[in-house]
Design a protein that fits this description.
Largest sheet: 7 strands, mixed
CATH class: Alpha Beta
Number of helices: 4
Structural class: alpha+beta
Strand order of the largest sheet: 1-2-3-4-5-7-6
Strand content: 35-45%
Order of helices and strands: EHHEEEHEHEE
Number of domains: 1
Number of strands: 7
Protein backbone atom coordinates (compact mmCIF):
# COMPACT_ATOMS: atom_id res chain seq x y z
CA UNK A 1 0.00 0.00 0.00
CA UNK A 2 1.31 3.42 -0.88
CA UNK A 3 0.08 6.89 -1.80
CA UNK A 4 -1.10 7.33 -5.39
CA UNK A 5 1.43 8.84 -7.79
CA UNK A 6 0.44 10.48 -11.09
CA UNK A 7 2.18 7.70 -13.04
CA UNK A 8 -0.21 5.17 -11.42
CA UNK A 9 -3.24 6.51 -13.29
CA UNK A 10 -2.52 4.36 -16.35
CA UNK A 11 -3.14 1.30 -14.15
CA UNK A 12 -5.80 2.78 -11.89
CA UNK A 13 -8.08 3.95 -14.71
CA UNK A 14 -8.71 0.42 -16.09
CA UNK A 15 -9.72 -0.73 -12.59
CA UNK A 16 -12.05 2.22 -12.11
CA UNK A 17 -13.46 1.84 -15.63
CA UNK A 18 -14.21 -1.88 -15.15
CA UNK A 19 -15.87 -1.39 -11.75
CA UNK A 20 -17.93 1.59 -12.86
CA UNK A 21 -19.04 0.02 -16.16
CA UNK A 22 -20.13 -3.17 -14.41
CA UNK A 23 -22.70 -0.96 -12.61
CA UNK A 24 -23.20 -3.58 -9.90
CA UNK A 25 -21.52 -1.93 -6.89
CA UNK A 26 -21.08 1.83 -7.35
CA UNK A 27 -23.65 4.55 -7.93
CA UNK A 28 -21.38 6.19 -10.51
CA UNK A 29 -22.65 6.66 -14.06
CA UNK A 30 -21.48 3.62 -16.08
CA UNK A 31 -20.66 5.96 -18.97
CA UNK A 32 -18.25 7.96 -16.79
CA UNK A 33 -15.39 9.36 -18.85
CA UNK A 34 -11.75 9.03 -17.92
CA UNK A 35 -11.58 12.75 -17.12
CA UNK A 36 -14.61 12.52 -14.85
CA UNK A 37 -13.23 9.40 -13.18
CA UNK A 38 -9.92 11.10 -12.53
CA UNK A 39 -11.67 14.10 -10.99
CA UNK A 40 -13.88 11.86 -8.85
CA UNK A 41 -11.29 9.32 -7.71
CA UNK A 42 -8.22 11.43 -7.01
CA UNK A 43 -8.59 13.14 -3.63
CA UNK A 44 -7.04 16.45 -2.72
CA UNK A 45 -5.83 17.14 0.84
CA UNK A 46 -7.04 16.60 3.44
CA UNK A 47 -8.11 13.45 1.57
CA UNK A 48 -5.84 10.82 0.11
CA UNK A 49 -5.81 8.30 -2.73
CA UNK A 50 -3.69 5.15 -2.42
CA UNK A 51 -2.86 2.08 -4.47
CA UNK A 52 -2.26 -1.53 -3.54
CA UNK A 53 0.66 -2.90 -5.50
CA UNK A 54 2.29 -6.25 -6.19
CA UNK A 55 5.70 -5.42 -7.58
CA UNK A 56 5.04 -2.74 -10.17
CA UNK A 57 1.42 -3.84 -10.77
CA UNK A 58 -1.48 -1.88 -9.25
CA UNK A 59 -4.04 -4.38 -7.94
CA UNK A 60 -6.40 -2.02 -6.15
CA UNK A 61 -7.02 1.55 -5.12
CA UNK A 62 -8.79 3.51 -2.40
CA UNK A 63 -9.74 7.09 -1.75
CA UNK A 64 -10.52 8.59 1.61
CA UNK A 65 -11.29 11.92 3.20
CA UNK A 66 -13.97 13.84 5.06
CA UNK A 67 -17.47 12.49 4.47
CA UNK A 68 -19.00 15.98 4.32
CA UNK A 69 -17.62 19.51 4.67
CA UNK A 70 -18.12 21.85 7.60
CA UNK A 71 -19.99 20.39 10.58
CA UNK A 72 -19.70 16.88 9.07
CA UNK A 73 -15.96 17.01 8.45
CA UNK A 74 -15.12 15.09 11.64
CA UNK A 75 -16.39 11.85 10.03
CA UNK A 76 -14.35 10.21 7.28
CA UNK A 77 -15.47 8.23 4.27
CA UNK A 78 -13.65 5.93 1.88
CA UNK A 79 -14.14 3.97 -1.33
CA UNK A 80 -12.30 0.92 -2.63
CA UNK A 81 -11.81 -0.80 -5.98
CA UNK A 82 -9.88 -3.98 -6.72
CA UNK A 83 -8.79 -5.25 -10.14
CA UNK A 84 -11.06 -8.05 -11.30
CA UNK A 85 -8.20 -10.56 -11.58
CA UNK A 86 -6.98 -9.71 -8.04
CA UNK A 87 -10.25 -10.17 -6.13
CA UNK A 88 -10.67 -12.70 -3.36
CA UNK A 89 -7.12 -12.27 -2.08
CA UNK A 90 -7.73 -9.81 0.75
CA UNK A 91 -6.75 -6.66 -1.14
CA UNK A 92 -10.08 -4.94 -0.51
CA UNK A 93 -9.86 -5.73 3.21
CA UNK A 94 -6.27 -4.43 3.32
CA UNK A 95 -7.36 -1.20 1.62
CA UNK A 96 -10.20 -0.82 4.12
CA UNK A 97 -7.88 -1.42 7.09
CA UNK A 98 -5.53 1.22 5.65
CA UNK A 99 -8.41 3.72 5.41
CA UNK A 100 -9.52 2.98 8.97
CA UNK A 101 -5.97 3.46 10.30
CA UNK A 102 -5.54 6.64 8.26
CA UNK A 103 -8.83 8.10 9.52
CA UNK A 104 -7.92 7.34 13.15
CA UNK A 105 -4.48 8.91 12.71
CA UNK A 106 -6.06 12.02 11.17
CA UNK A 107 -8.33 12.43 14.21
CA UNK A 108 -11.69 11.57 12.64
CA UNK A 109 -14.46 10.44 15.01
CA UNK A 110 -15.44 7.56 12.76
CA UNK A 111 -15.80 6.44 9.17
CA UNK A 112 -19.05 6.25 7.20
CA UNK A 113 -19.88 4.53 3.93
CA UNK A 114 -22.87 6.28 2.36
CA UNK A 115 -24.01 3.83 -0.31
CA UNK A 116 -23.02 0.15 -0.05
CA UNK A 117 -25.17 -1.94 -2.38
CA UNK A 118 -26.88 -4.62 -0.30
CA UNK A 119 -26.15 -7.05 -3.13
CA UNK A 120 -22.39 -6.47 -2.68
CA UNK A 121 -22.30 -9.18 -0.03
CA UNK A 122 -18.51 -9.67 -0.16
CA UNK A 123 -17.89 -6.00 0.68
CA UNK A 124 -20.59 -5.95 3.35
CA UNK A 125 -19.00 -9.01 4.99
CA UNK A 126 -15.54 -7.40 4.97
CA UNK A 127 -16.85 -4.15 6.44
CA UNK A 128 -18.75 -5.99 9.18
CA UNK A 129 -15.68 -8.09 9.99
CA UNK A 130 -13.71 -4.85 10.39
CA UNK A 131 -16.27 -3.45 12.84
CA UNK A 132 -18.74 -1.51 10.69
CA UNK A 133 -22.45 -1.71 11.41
CA UNK A 134 -25.35 -1.07 9.08
CA UNK A 135 -27.05 1.99 10.54
CA UNK A 136 -29.72 2.14 7.88
CA UNK A 137 -30.76 0.85 4.49
CA UNK A 138 -32.51 2.85 1.81
CA UNK A 139 -34.84 0.30 0.21
CA UNK A 140 -34.61 -0.28 -3.54
CA UNK A 141 -32.25 2.71 -3.97
CA UNK A 142 -29.71 0.99 -6.24
CA UNK A 143 -30.55 -0.24 -9.73
CA UNK A 144 -28.49 -3.43 -10.07
CA UNK A 145 -28.06 -4.57 -13.71
CA UNK A 146 -29.35 -8.11 -13.09
CA UNK A 147 -31.04 -8.08 -9.68
CA UNK A 148 -33.14 -4.98 -10.22
CA UNK A 149 -33.58 -2.53 -7.38
CA UNK A 150 -31.74 -3.45 -4.19
CA UNK A 151 -31.11 -1.57 -0.97
CA UNK A 152 -28.24 0.79 -0.28
CA UNK A 153 -26.69 0.41 3.17
CA UNK A 154 -25.25 3.24 5.20
CA UNK A 155 -22.44 1.71 7.25
CA UNK A 156 -20.53 3.26 10.14
CA UNK A 157 -17.54 2.56 12.35
CA UNK A 158 -17.18 4.84 15.36
CA UNK A 159 -13.72 5.32 16.82
Amino acid sequence: MRPFEQADWDQVWPIVRQVVRAADTYTYDPAMTEAAARGTWLESPPGRTVVAVEGSRVTGTAKMGPNKPGPGAHVATASFMVAENARGRGIGAALCRYAIDWAREQGYAGIQFNAVAASNTAAVAVYRRLGFTIVGTVPRAFQHPTLGRVGLHIMYLEF
